[in-house]
Amino acid sequence: MGNCFGKKKGSQYQAVHGIYPDEINSRDSVLNEVEDNQPGAAEIRNVASLLGHNQQDVSDGIVTTNQSQHIHQGTLNFPFLVDARTRQWVSRSKTIFIMRGLPGSGKSTIVREIQKIYPGTEVCSADNFFIGEDGIYRFDSSLLPNAHNHCQEIADLKCKEGCHVIVIDNTNIMKWEMAPYLKLAHDVYHYIPVIVEPLTSWRKDPEVLAKKNSHNVTIDLIQHKVNKLDDQRLTPIYYGWFMNELDSKEICNKAWNCFQNIVIGNQERRAAFISWISPEENPDFNTVIESHFKPMNSRVHCTANFLGNQIHNIYHREENVIASLGKVFSLQIISIIFTPRSIGVRVKLEAEQLQLFVKPEEEVQRVEGSLERGRSAHITVRVAHKEDNKVTGKDVLNMCDMFYNGQYTELNCSEGLLIDYGFCQYEIVLSNPLSYDALFSGFYARNFKR
Fold first, then answer.
1. How far apart are CA 115 and CA 91, in angstroms?
2. How far apart are CA 359 and CA 374, in angstroms?
3. One domain for residues 149 and 262
4. Per-residue model confidence as pLDDT tens digits over 361-398
5. 128 and 48, same structural domain?
6. Which of 204, 234, 264 is the endpoint of a domain?
7. Residue 77 lies in a domain
8. Which of 44, 134, 190, 421 could in theory staple to 425 by disulfide, Cβ–Cβ 3.0 to 4.6 A?
9. What CATH number does residue 426 fall under?
10. Are residues 193 and 110 in the same domain?
């Protein structure tokens, strides 16, 4: 059962907490092989217990400054530049880096490093519009709208071509300047956007910037832009671990196939499920099931913290959050859940991820401090048309409570242990947990106004 496995009332089983390896090979089994591939309930329960976390390892709430990992002051110390695992993931995934900073702040240095690390990177810049066939840069402020339109057209084209790494190399001081690229990423081509601001010590120093920028921008104008940059504070609606398209499709298909086999493939469960979601007397179950759930997502994620419009929340400024942006982590898929409201997978978070994970709903439903933090971590695969994506987390927490209180029955199935909570609510605890890499980033609004 994963993260909610702890001391259970009326049970002889108790979670065994151990050290989970930092690096886990993809699709490795945490169980010894069983000859008939039908593990018993006790074996599965023991595995689920081993996937739990010791609450003493991670304090409640977000990590404080003195707990945070140290951030080096190097101007190129970004995970997507220095972390080997992240670099490997980005090279095979669709990522769009949106540069943000004043002229002379160090953006070009970062862009050149991205191009060096990721061959085939496409750089889209409004500045390129002013470079003539002779290679000479001739700026004309009256043509700026044309330059930005051209930049957006090139970005659209490169996204359409499926280029793995795209860089938007503009100042992007105003939020609305980024909106077209965020819309391309989120809504059209399913890229993962990463906002990149230089780490240089002079990035907001007008005097230094006036000397360093290549466009002869005056100190007064730069100071004005510095003020604008401070005014236009950019914060995500939520933070999370985002999977690429290929892996998203794989895990969604896995969950959907399990739903077909376990629920639809069983006559009794199918009849109960159909009667729960359809008022018709003898409906065609294939039509009902397909129309009941929204289509699968092209790119799924595990939410770390939903903040909405809380731009002054301390989470945005936490050192470990800032240091983790643009970094790849492993998501351990430990179970698959089905309810009339949602289909999803549960995620087991490691200690470093738990420091980034904030879910107030868990605290509300914690029973005597015995249910683990991080137990509601999940990926939504499908939800009913009348529901929003948050319902998956609610279903997971309800299952944790029911398991804690012994309100379930168990059956073996080909994938592991099938837990039946009643009322058409099921969970498959996987005998072979899955592992996927995912990029920690933010989800930003894409409808900023001028």
1. 11
2. 8
3. no
4. 887 755 555 678 899 999 999 999 999 989 999 999 99
5. no
6. 234
7. no
8. 421
9. 3.90.1740.10
10. yes
All residues at 6 or more sequence positions from 216 whose CB lies less than 8 Å from its CB, including other chains = none
Contacts made by residues 307-310, CB under 8 angstroms, sequence distance 24+: 307/235, 307/236, 307/237, 307/238, 307/239, 308/237, 308/238, 309/237, 310/235
Residue-wise pLDDT tens digits, 117-134: 999 999 999 999 998 888
Residue 92 CB partners (closer than 8 Å, separation 6+): 164, 244
188 DSSP 8-state letter: I
| Residue for token pair 């005998």 | 431
Predicted TM-score of the model (pTM): 0.83
Domain span including residue 275: 2-17+31-61+242-442
Report the C-alpha gap between 280 and 277 in whole angstroms. Answer: 9
What's the CA gap between 305 and 354, in Å, rounded? 11
**Burial grade of 339 (CB within 10 A; 0-12, 13-18, 19 or more):** buried
pLDDT of residue 49: 45
Quick one: pLDDT at residue 214? 66
Residue 297 has a CB neighbour count (10 Å cut-off) of: 19
CB atoms within 10 A of CB 112: 13
pLDDT at 45: 45
Most confident of the ranges 72-76, 89-93, 129-133: 89-93
Q: Residues of 79-111 as b/e, b for ≥16 C-beta within 10 angstroms?
A: bbbebeebeebbbebbbbbbbbbbbbbbbbebb
What secondary structure, in 3-state letters, does 332-370 show? EEEEEEECCCEEEEEEECCHHHHCCCCCHHHHHCCCCCC
Burial 382-405 (b: 16+ CB within 10 A, else e): bbbeebebebbbbbbbbbbbbbbe
What angle, 0 to 180 degrees and rounded to 10, lies between the N-to-C axes of helices 175-183 and 144-160?
30
Task: Quote the number of domains for the chain.
Answer: 2
Q: Does residue 184 share a domain with residue 106?
A: yes
| pLDDT at residue 114 in the model | 98
The identity of residue 172, as a single letter, is N
Contact criterion met (CB below 8 Å) for 236 and 185: no
Of the candidates 61, 390, 69, the one whose C-alpha atom is nearest the C-alpha of residue 237 is 390
**Cβ atoms 218, 224 nearer than 8 A:** no
